[in-house]
Amino acid sequence: MSSYAGDEVGAIVVDVGSHTTKAGFAGEENPKAVVPSVAGVVYEKEDKSKVSNYYLGLKEISFARPHMEIENIFDPESGEICNLDYMERLLNYIYDERLGVRTNEHPLLMTEVPTSSSQNREKLTSLIFETFNAPNFFLSKQPVLSCFANGKYTALVVDSGHNFTTVTPVLDGYALQRSVIKTNKIGGKALDDELRKLIVSKRNGKDILALHQFTKQRNTPLPSSKSAKIIESEIPGLTMSFNEYFKNRIVSDIKISLLRVAERNTQNNTSIPIVSYEMNDGIEIEIGNERESICELLFNEEYGIHKLSYESINKCDVDLRKELYSNIILTGGTTLIPNLPSRYEIELSRIAPSNAKVKPPLNTKQHSTTTSNPSGSNQTALAHLQERKYTSFIGGSILASLGGFQQMWISKSEFDETGAAQCLLRKCP
Q1: CA distance 429 to 227
Q2: Tens digit of pLDDT for each residue in 93-119?
């Protein structure tokens, strides 16, 4: 808790991501709000340079509005803010609509990617103090917070999110910038792209339809979609970015439902059960060994997550490498795919030096103490999945609620006196 105007108030934690942004109060285990990191921007029909309205949050952007573009708040390549105006609107939405608090009454801890530029950090800090009038602010790198969430100060953090995968060594609570490796060749989107190609081929070249692109005309009172006639419809004025965004969400849902990582690298495993999946327009597709073969992208011998980990560790001092091999943290939505942690351990062990002991990732089921209680084991597994999904937020929640952390905040008076650059250099290097 932080002191403000003589009262104890809870800090706000905002974990920004290029795909989703998580927000909540310090001291809580999970975020209260998980918001798409996009803005629905409605342009004037006659003049595309003029904006008539903005929409934030999944409910608002899901409504099919003519001339509404779905635009990124963060650069999908770098993870940095690419539109400060959209960022301001996203924070306003989080404060007003999701958390219901005033911006000037709560300290704010925000996360950032380990490769954030100084210019971007300074602009964000100025926005927080000058526009939102926050009493205190702190900017922390996501891999460092992932370490705190797992009770570590030194570890190798492998973050595989939607748009890219980043491997960051952390030493004594500081990210080693020179050893960070990032790629957009693997991650949730890369898997989605491959899965979408497969789905279209199994639909005989017919593209996926988003829910707003068709209606069902039922011929019988039965609820089954097989008894309904699909009538494709086109709402005038809908943009390509709107249609594509919601088609991609359908693919992501299928990915979560069907894909899994092979326990070992086996080519054309025919023993995988074929699964039928009914698309929302009633067309059924069957997926067998592709459920695993698509995920082999994550273990590509050139840029797989094990290879990136190996290269990142090799960029560190020799004396640190053994400790990193035995303290690995997996985070990000892509790491939730079944069997990924155990396969990652196998592949990294295969290429690691003979004198290095690769231990199971810290926040995974196989790292936990086994239990004879099946329900207890399931609860442990679910807890680890939740932790991997929200690791940075959890770390920020822990950090911002520590009594010893309160002196680390950048105060409004410090910002006014020395400016963003000096404050960040001194307190958020």
Answers
A1: 61
A2: 999 999 999 999 999 999 999 999 999
The answer to whether residue 339 scores a pLDDT higher than 90 is yes
Q: How many independent structural domains does the chain possess?
A: 2
Last residue within a domain, chosen from 297, 329, 351: 297
Q: What is the pLDDT of residues 34-51, one digit of tens each?
A: 999 999 999 987 677 889
Out of 258, 280, 297, pick the residue that ends a domain.
Answer: 297
DSSP string, 372-396: S-HHHHHHHHHHHHHHHHSHHHHHH
Q: What is the distance in angstroms between the CA of the first residue and the CA of the last residue of the chain?
A: 23
**8 A C-beta contact, residue 164 and residue 308:** no
Q: E strand or H helix at 349, and its extent?
A: helix 340-351
Q: What pLDDT, on the 0 to 100 scale, is given for residue 9?
A: 63
State how far the Cα of 423 lies from the Cα of 429, in Å rounded to an integer: 9
Q: Which residue has the tokens 């890369």?
A: 190
User: Are 131 and 16 in a shared domain?
Assistant: yes
